[in-house]
Specification:
- InterPro entries: AA-permease/SLC12A_dom, APC_YAT.
- It comes from Puccinia striiformis.
- This is Amino acid permease/ SLC12A domain-containing protein.
- It is found in: Membrane.
- This protein is mostly helical and about 475 residues long.
- The chain has a domain at about 55-95 and about 140-420.
- It contains 15 helices and no strands.
- The protein has helices at about 50-60, 65-110, 115-120, 125-155, 165-180, 180-210, 225, 240-260, 275-285, 285-305, 325-330, 335-370, 385-395, 405-440, 455-470.
- Helix 1 (about 50-60) packs parallel to helix 9, helix 2 crosses helix 9 and helix 3 (about 115-120) crosses helix 14.
- The longest helix has about 45 residues, at about 65-110.
- It starts with about 50 loop residues before the first helix and ends in an 11-residue tail after the last helix.
Length: about 475
């Protein structure tokens, strides 16, 4: 195929990678190199097989993970009900700032590997390289993390099956869903999304009913737990406003990790029909989804379970440590905990499949930008980057390390390190949004214009920088070093 370049010496990029998108405008000529057309490209090009329904449900389901069902328990214990609510509310605004900035860029240029391609295009190729490989590592390692989580959740029913068997089943089936192509993956994610949305909506309603005395015990709770044990926990027994602020800040950082994955709709843009219309619709609803699923859940959890409830620190990893299940058990309801555990299992399994998908697309995007070996760019007849998929799934085998106590400690360290890769990617999105404006591109020609820009991007940049710098603040407290 003959390649066309609007600028024979692309800005800050040498050599220029192949073009990823169509309909070149005068503004797009200001962005350095132009990638190759998605639908008419070489064997590295993927097909647009995701429709609007699939993309919308994927974006909805992507906001609901195991962190929502299980992670809120430790957050409530660390921060108290008000610390939990404020932490998730403010973190939700940060995530929205990232999504809005990303939505503008994706609809302007729906390219492969957008989250790694844009930093290289608008800031510097070195940033694109570092963001891309950090992001890929984050997904690759988290495949093993989610497989492990699903296996622990499955063990809730105490079936006479070794964890190694559960790990094998979840790992192989999650890979199989992706091997059959993006259309198959999209359909499965739609099913998972419907289950998760129905479950979390039902849990919020059940929590409100229990709080108002509608359970078998008919106990009216109201705001009792806001008075005793209180709105905030004094973090690490530090007295006064400092202890309360640190309690909030610990929840704020935990919430950041719970929200990771909400940006993955951008990775599917290059495989979506008419992304300039479908992506904005998915992006625009992010704020309302976050408000309903996370903020409403944080509020309900804070009024039905006290933060000093011992079971919040059970550490089992299954539904028994979920604050929703704890509230239901306190109300003497028998069957619901098993149903919730099944939903948590679906959530963990969905996350496993999603990590494999996202990791393979990030690696494929790096190939398209000539930042990874070309062998990982080849796709099969279904449009799946098969080599990238295999390499991205293989780290999932590290889940077997959890069968040994000593190895599981190393594995946990690897997963904790990988989590920062997602935060770093969010940070780069806000920085790239500023770089896009520095190129003098007319925002009035965007298919989607986010509100409150560029101030939202500045806000996200400042808050994410603070998270990166202060994520390990606990090590400086007494007794931790």
């Amino acid at each position: 195929m003959t390649q066309r370049y609007d600028n024979p010496t692309p800005l800050n990029v040498s050599p220029p990678p192949p073009k990823h998108f169509d309909d070149t405008s005068s503004d797009e000529k200001n962005v350095g190199y132009l990638p190759e057309k998605v639908d008419k490209g070489p064997p590295t090009a993927m097909a647009r097989k995701l429709n609007e329904r699939q993309l919308t449900l994927m974006s909805v389901g992507g906001t609901i993970g195991t962190g929502l069902f299980l992670g809120m328990g430790s957050s409530l214990n660390n921060g108290g009900p008000m610390g939990l609510l404020l932490g998730y509310l403010i973190m939700g605004t940060v995530v929205c700032s990232v999504q809005m900035a990303l939505g503008e860029m994706i609809t302007f240029m729906p390219s492969h590997g957008a989250l790694t391609n844009f930093p290289a295009r608008f800031v510097d190729p070195a940033l694109g390289f570092s963001v891309g490989w950090n992001y890929w590592y984050s997904f690759a390692i988290c495949v093993a993390g989610e497989v492990t989580a699903a296996s622990i959740v499955a063990d809730y029913w105490k079936a006479p099956v070794s964890m190694a068997v559960w790990i094998t089943i979840f790992f192989l089936t999650a890979c199989a869903i992706n091997f059959f192509g993006v259309k198959c993956y999209g359909e499965f994610e739609c099913i998972f999304a419907v289950v998760k949305v129905f479950a979390i909506t039902s849990l919020v309603v059940i929590g409100l009913v229990l709080n108002l005395g509608g359970g078998p015990t008919h106990e009216f709770i109201g705001l009792k737990y806001w008075r005793d044990p209180g709105l905030f926990r004094q973090f690490n027994d530090i007295p006064g406003a400092t202890g309360r602020f640190l309690a909030f800040w610990s929840v704020f950082i935990q919430a950041a990790y719970s929200f990771l994955g909400t940006e993955t709709v951008a990775l599917a843009a290059a495989e979506t029909e008419n992304p300039r219309k479908t992506v904005p619709r998915a992006i625009k609803s992010v704020f309302y989804r976050l408000l309903l699923f996370y903020v409403a859940s944080a509020f309900v959890v804070g009024i039905v379970v006290p933060f000093n409830e011992p079971r919040l620190l059970g550490g089992t990893g299954d539904a028994s440590s979920s604050p929703f299940v704890i509230a239901i058990n306190r109300s003497k309801i028998k069957i619901l905990p098993d149903i919730i555990n099944a939903v948590v299992l679906v959530s963990a399994y969905s996350a496993t499949s999603s990590e494999v998908y996202c990791g393979s697309r990030v690696l494929h995007g790096l190939v398209m930008d000539r930042m990874a070996p070309q062998i990982f760019g080849r796709v099969n007849s279904r449009g799946t980057p098969i080599n990238a998929l295999i390499v991205s799934a293989l780290p999932g085998l590290l889940a077997y390390m959890n069968l040994s106590t000593k190895s599981s400690t190393v594995f946990l360290w690897l997963v904790n390190v990988s989590a920062m890769g997602g935060i770093f990617t969010w940070w780069s999105v806000c920085l790239v949004s500023k770089g896009l404006r520095a190129r003098g591109i007319d925002r009035n020609k965007f298919d989607y214009k986010a509100p409150f820009q560029p101030y939202l991007s500045y806000y996200g940049l400042v808050m994410l920088t603070a998270i990166v710098l202060m994520s390990g603040f606990k090590v400086f407290l007494k007794g931790n070093w």
